[in-house]
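pls ignore typos typing on phone
L-homoserine + seq
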Amino acid sequence: MKIIKFGGSSIANYENIQKVFSIVEQKSGKEAFALVFSAFGGVTEQLLQCANIAQQSEESYHTILQELEKRHLEIAKKLVPVQQQSTALTFVKVRFNELGDLFHGIYLIKECSNRTMDYVLSFGERLSNFILAAGLQAKGISTTYVDARDLVKTDGRFGHAKVNFKSTNKLIQSYFEKHEGIKVITGFIGSTDKGETTTVGRSGSDYTASIFAAALGAEQVEIWTDVSGVMTADPRLVYTAFTIPQLSYNEAMELSHFGAKVVFPATMQPAMKEDIPIYIKNTFKPEEEGTRISKESGEGKIIKGISSMDNISILNVQGPGLVEVVGVSQRFFGTLANNGINIILISQASSEHSICVAIASKDASRAKSVIEEEFRYEIQSGEMAEIEVVPDMAVIAVVGENMQHNPGASGRMFQALGRNNVNVAAIAQGSSELNISAVITQADLQKALNALHEAFFLSDYKVLHVFLVGVGLIGKALTKMINNQLGKLQEENMLDIQIHGMANSRYMKFHEDGFDLATVGPPDENDEPMDMGKFIGTMTEMNFSNSVFVDCTASQDVADIYEQILDSKVGIVTPNKKANSGPLDTYKKLKKLAGQRGVRFFYETNVAAGLPVINTLQDLMLSGDHVHRIEAVLSGSMNYIFSELEKGMPFSEVVAQAKEKGYTEPDPRDDLSGMDVARKILILGREAGQDLHFEDVDIQSMVPEDCEDAASVPEFFEKLQKHDGHFQQLLDEAKAKGEKLRFMATLENGKAKVGLNSLDSEHPFYTLKGSDNMILFTTERYNDFPMIVRGPGAGADVTAAGVFADIIRLGNYSR
Ligand SMILES: NC(=O)c1ccc[n+]([C@@H]2O[C@H](COP(=O)([O-])OP(=O)(O)OC[C@H]3O[C@@H](n4cnc5c(N)ncnc54)[C@H](O)[C@@H]3O)[C@@H](O)[C@H]2O)c1
Ligand SMILES: N[C@@H](CCO)C(=O)O
Ligand code: NA
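k done
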């Protein structure tokens, strides 16, 4: 025997009822079962509403009542063929006549007691079950309508009556022995010994199903609803939440305490006592497995689910007056209890110096004043500090029996919270190890839920939330590249990348769910004007776990906010050299801060675009090598310019080409002046552990003096033409010696030099072509022959690819 219960939403209308009937038809004849139905969806609320209106001596309840009657008659007419309708229709009409009289009475005496209310509400279940029994009968399924008031006996606590199991069980058992057919049982209602109608409280129909299951020793209870079981977290806050296949009763109780309101603990009690499993199934997706709740927790992850509760306040008492004074906590908790204030979580450290409880925010100010009153002498004398209330908090809890005697769950929980910059205000864990709860700021709730969900359930799957500033050459190439590769990353590497913010120097835009990368373009005049403070503000507000700030500008202003970003535990990836080549203090501070905050700051593309230069150097340093000398061609554009020049084109034209190809800085003078290379050698020196300042770099500029103060890039190009002859001459001189011009950087003995050199064919840089970069590291270990890195070191694709790789690397470290 199974007890199968369908809730109000499953039978809210004719279409839904058809789904229910097809589920019942499939079971019919194959297995023994009884059915329990709630009232049709929304009916209980409307009956309540009618009673409340009538109580206020208003007549408008008539309209609702008429609608209700019409709705019940229509469903009955649709479910039962005309020839068989009369019994059902008569039942409905008689019930509504009774209800009419009842509300008229309430209307006259302006009062609706709990007792009357229970009677009023009982009509909902009686009507739905009678009609549905008739409907099934009409489909050839033999049914018996059961008014549970005849079988479920309760005390007289109207509204939430207590069941007398002894007499109830007897009545149920003998009724089932004597009656044939599939019983269709009204949920929610019972009666006292005197025959007064009662209701058994919230989620009462589930309770009814559980009561019948226990009385009959049923093999299982099925609760059919509009969700596919108990989920790992609230799906409205955690999009990746999924159905938990199996739960123990205890776990279900812990989870339903807050968050997952699919089952109420009390309704499980009778089934639980008899060890009868409860299945949560979805009427609208019957093929889905749903959740099985039984004695066994079952195999699986270390936790079963994450629940949460918001609108919480912390109440904190502290002071020397608490230490080793017996009875303080009794007074504290007694006072709260006497004032009907429910305590959600308690935490007291063994120093006894403070006690902290979490309570509902609606109780907070009352709690504060009653505690202040109770302890007024202690507060006056300073034995106790002022009572502190912290509002706008939330409780988050991980739940699961597998945590018992299994180290690591709390570690993983708090690590995930910490890494995502979620501050924990208080912690509680019972020694049953079934639940670890933490109090956090309410604003962090969604982030915290997602961080925990990822940490416990999707440890193989990560989502990086990107905020991109600079959607120029590199930024655009990057978004395109991510879009092309995303499917593969998701499938094979369990990595998802979502871009939520995009800005250039003029505009910015945001997308809560992440932009569609296939179609997204840079922000424009239809978007918000760019405001760096606002951009960071929105990023902080969105408050995603695993956020990454990607700077694809060449801007000092953007580099200036890295400190703030790292401080808020958001990682940074950037090809922008400004931060690392600025003051030495800043460089050191950013690295240290990233370390302290446990976030990553990656900038492989600061030097030689995607070529593995920074990482290589960092590996050498980490493994204890010492750098003696670095000799390098570090500018893709400069190498392109001086090697293309050999082909006979004028200098200014070759520079324009280098810009067109995307090799130069936004302003090519940054390349020609040697500034860009100087920044790079400075960064390499610093990475090699040297305290280098910009002044330590000797720079030979290639920008003719009169071009330096050209107001714009086009003006600069115009002026540059006049100097084509000068560069031709340099080239000719080199050619005459059988040499080539290379713009190089060297670092040795704490001194860096940047400039143009004429090199003979023996030199490794002689053969470089196009945008090639080449770096020779002479170190303690690579001494006789240097370690060499060579390849194209500028251009949109090789740079974007390097930025992309850094983002992915950051993903590997995240969580
Ligand atoms: N081009 C290459 O081969 C290469 C190689 C390695 C590194 N880089 C670096 O990549 C970065 C970007 O280069 P690019 O060629 O894409 O430049 P770009 O001029 O094409 O794009 C720069 C973008 O940054 C935006 N921007 C500038 N200042 C801003 C500010 N204050 N706030 C918001 N947005 C701002 C601009 O609007 C533009 O969208 C630079 O730091 C460059 O040094 C480039
Ligand atoms: N403008 C740089 C690319 C960015 O590092 C170069 O020419 O190498
Ligand atoms: Na690089």
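The chain has 28 helices and 29 strands. The chain has a mean pLDDT of 94. more later
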